[in-house]
Amino acid sequence: MKWVPDAEAPDAPPAPPDVTGLAVEGLVRGQPATEDIDAFLASHDVPVVEGARVTFLFRGRADQVHLRHWVYGLPSASPLHRIQGTDLWYDVLELPEGSRVEYKLEVINGRDVQWIQDPLNQRTAHDPFGANSVCHGAGYEVPEWTQPDPAAREGTLEDRVFHSSALGGSRRVTIYRPARFRETRRYPLLLVHDGGDYLRFSGLKTVLDNLIHRLEVPGLIAALMHPPDRMEQYRASEAHGHYLTEELVPQLESELPLIGRPEGRCLMGASLGAVASLATAVKTPGFYGRLLLQSGSFAFSDIGSHRRGPVFDPIADFVNRYRRQPTRVAEKVFVSCGIYESLIYENRSLVPLLQQTGMEVRFVEARDGHNWENWRDRLREGLSWLFPGPLWLVYE
Amino acid sequence: MVLLGPQRAAPDVGRVVRELVGDAPVALVTAGWQEWEEDDAWLKGEVGSGAFNLGLYARAQRVAEVDRELTAAHRELQSRIRELRRTYNLRLAPAMKAWIDLSALAGTPEVVGPELADALAVVRSLDRHHAGRLQELRSAYYQRFDPHNRPSIAQQRDELRRALEAVAAVVVEGGHVPALVNRLRMFGVGELLAGKVVVACSGGAMALSPRIVLFHDSPPWGPGHAEMGDVGLCLYSGVLVFPDGSRRLRLEDPGRVARLALRFGPEPCVVLDPGTRLDFDGAWRSPGSVRLTEAGTMAQWRGAA
Question: In this structure, how many other beta carbons lie within 10 angstroms of the beta carbon of residue B185?
């Protein structure tokens, strides 16, 4: 007898979700007039969050509407149900406390299929591919330290171009200097993969300004990298590691007042940027004392296949090698990952390997996905753990 | 001696200085601001533009440039102090956890009570031990290098002595407390302040005390246990101040408040918020500050002998 996995079972029409006790119950069970729906939408934030149950709504003409979210483990498309006799569609999702979910609505009219931001929800998050709607589950709040603080002095950004023999060309790097920068101090260096995206989508400058102002991290200098082809440069590439360790860091340390020791050097990145960070550190153990790895694409294939396509083969080769022979490459490593992303498996697998080498490892999971605001929200804990600021020592 | 709260948001140091010494000359210590020591225009605006900054941070930099042997020894001392702090925190964390866990235990009072008291005694003993070890390290350094009598420092001390002879009051501002204490110690400023009116603000008040307790109840990670930071200059006693306590402490949490009072008592643990003023003239007087109580509440504190 052939085993048929659930995903291949014949589709059954999904049952409408239970709305008992929810705000939308009256609309679903009644026969609401247009004015009733208008009044409901005017008096509720959408999605409607009621404890762990979240009601998504769409209003408009459509043959079908699906909720397209990026919660790994749930079906990626969840159908909305039309309230009979109306143009209002709804679905209910269970979201644990503190969840943050990015989503779009798939609206189907005949052969026309469109993925759109939720017109009833003004909350959006941006990434290099555009923008998604965002649902804040119960208990999630945008951390206040991610928002501009008028009291925080601002650091500065300066664009520089560095020539790289290793990469064969020039590379743009944005240098962040903290407020009240002094040539006479010695600063830690934070090397940020995808620095432009961290600036645009994670508000990295605001975060650094705030955390430094609050003394939670020391004043630091960040080198924000803008790779022209990250898919090539960040896949555990020899050339990238050479560029950083042999070219960029020495030049920065000769020109800027940097600590210039392992405990003052941190490699940071998300997704492929985390792979590039770890791979670079592995090539020169002990040169970088700190690593901040967010949702690393640490695909491996020493057990089965990595199922992520051939583009990930060089990464799997690197991770397989590291899994066979994990080595101590830094002093402290901060690892974070969202539990709603498929990479949680790979990241959870990596953590004990890092720990067994004797490195100090802090691993944080969040009820969030593979996105820039998840990475933003973890920066306070990660940066302040890797580079503790003088919070305990300064009393002004 | 007058202790004041943080000055940046709502300065009252100028008014207090004028009340105490009129328009007499005033010296400033802003070494806690480290490289920004000279950014003192706003402070001079408060206490009078004629105020003279003792420039302890810059003087220490000059000593570092000319006395390499002492600088190397001082760096080694600082490195050992940091190492000692790490070991202290490794021991403090489980001791605090045991004490907190026992506090939450709903057991038989005759059984749990003595264990709870002993858990607190362990924490207090660890704090005393750490303070003692810090003094040991520092004493060894002072005995070996006799820094005050080295030419590099003796010259600076002479200049400071002359400068201080001309002033009636000294304002010691806060900032990075270990950096401030180091510079005050390096030049033996404590002895030079004898007979002067001293107005110490925020971290400056911590630096002059017998015990420097480092605290923050809401750090970005970790439980936020207060630390025995160091022994201060001991220019006063009888009170332990918590600068900016309303912001840095979770005063609404009775457990945390009670633990601070129990751990660091019997000296009154007094919140030194902006606008708070404590006067010492043989006895402490305060127009109305608040102290932490062992019951976990806040109580008015008007001073003590």
Answer: 18
